[in-house]
Design a protein that fits this description.
Two copies of one chain form a homodimer. The first copy, chain A, is an alpha+beta fold and 233 residues long. Chain A folds into two domains: 129 residues, Jelly Rolls; 79 residues, Arc Repressor Mutant, subunit A (Orthogonal Bundle). Chain A is built from seven helices and eleven strands. In chain A, the strands form three sheets. Chain A has a four-stranded antiparallel β-sheet. A four-stranded antiparallel β-sheet of chain A has the order 2-7-4-5. In chain A, a hairpin with a 5-residue loop joins β4 and β5. Chains A and B meet through β5, α2 and α3 of A and β5, α2, α3 and α5 of B. Chain A binds a DNA duplex (30 and 30 nucleotides) through α6.
Amino acid sequence: MCIAGGRIHDLQGAGSKTFGATAPTLSAQHVSTHDHLFFEGDARDRIYIVESGWVKLYRTLIDGQRQIVGFANSGSILGIESDGHYSNSCEAITDVIIRPIPAIRINGICKNDPALADQILRQIARQLGAAQSQLATIGAQSAEQKLATFLLSIADLCEVNHDREFDLPMRRGDMAEFLGLRLETVSRKMTEFQRRGWIKLTSLYHCRFLQRHVLEQLAQGGEADTGVALRAC
Amino acid sequence: MCIAGGRIHDLQGAGSKTFGATAPTLSAQHVSTHDHLFFEGDARDRIYIVESGWVKLYRTLIDGQRQIVGFANSGSILGIESDGHYSNSCEAITDVIIRPIPAIRINGICKNDPALADQILRQIARQLGAAQSQLATIGAQSAEQKLATFLLSIADLCEVNHDREFDLPMRRGDMAEFLGLRLETVSRKMTEFQRRGWIKLTSLYHCRFLQRHVLEQLAQGGEADTGVALRAC
DNA sequence: CGCGCGGTTGATCAACCTCAACCCGCGTGG
DNA sequence: CCACGCGGGTTGAGGTTGATCAACCGCGCG
């Protein structure tokens, strides 16, 4: 899937230097949960690199429908997909530390700061791949499959994976808007997964896999035998 | 929306030079309609820049469901979203000319060929934006809205826009797989649009807008008054 | 205590899918 | 020449999935 996570290690070093006549990388900033980094349509004067925490990127249609186009965490680049104006809104869903980069530095960045540019290129390629995966998920899968895919990728990202347990850092409504579903549907499917013994919700925002392979099968597009008769292959 | 079109002007010049010890850009290749440039899972030994024509990028799920994640034309970069193996299949939907770039050149490309790298960066950012727009379309819109959005963006791309008339270079099934619908649904909605006097299909692959503003309203998420002129069928 | 927020659950409904028939233009072969 | 099949598209009937609307729960908080 789907979620534009990924880590960049030496950005701090690379990004903190100043090159030529271009504006320097600004110092890191702190953003609190539920604060916005920027809104769709704002003038895009800078891009950001996430250093820690989670943000969601979303668009709002005129009729009020919203679509989350990605969650991003450490290493992700924000705001580079547009030009002139941000094409997404960006809201912190946890406390977040970000490093702003003046937009003016992006022109010719490959010449002026090849190390940073290489990182950005790699990262944005990853985000494109993630967006495409998400397209496949949203466009071609059922509600059940979407949720399975989502849980698996969230778990992979929250690598603090002691004993198949992981955080769901977002609300039901966020999941729904990410997956192109209604929050009621997400809720229903979650409890259904639990009822079938595939997962255990230790709290609203904390989950454990009991039958990871069933979810994997679902996510791959296979039929998940609801029953006990799971042919193990 | 949605479709990763976009033009790069001086790539030919930038790409045809050889830099340092890295492999040179290979010469342009011709690909015929319906041929594949590569398949999902193939070893990714090179990326491509489209010089002319149209390709579709798609993924196939185990259950046979397919999702077209993008159409690409002149200027688009293909294959950069993955690493090691292609994550999409790529098929020419018209005759196509492409310029391959050895994958090995991508590492450190910013240092070795900053001009090309800058172009790639800009282009890939555009593709990311397009993918995100498509996410919003697929995830948050109804079949009717999806189709309206799609027609408008296709028309914009086929700039040969004399008198609101344009080509639909792909089959109904391709549209469906792009929009996350069934081809029957696409077909039905197309004829419905026609019946309502919004468009006129001069042939299966050629379309004219009669009431562009209605489609625009639909695509923006507004309710399309079925209008006064809905009579007699 | 009352309220609001986030989540769950239930009943109902419609959008879209599924399956099937059918149309049409075209190329092929008898 | 016609019969035939095939690919792509359209149309129809009926079924499912997921949306909609509404009630309700649990909790934190002023």
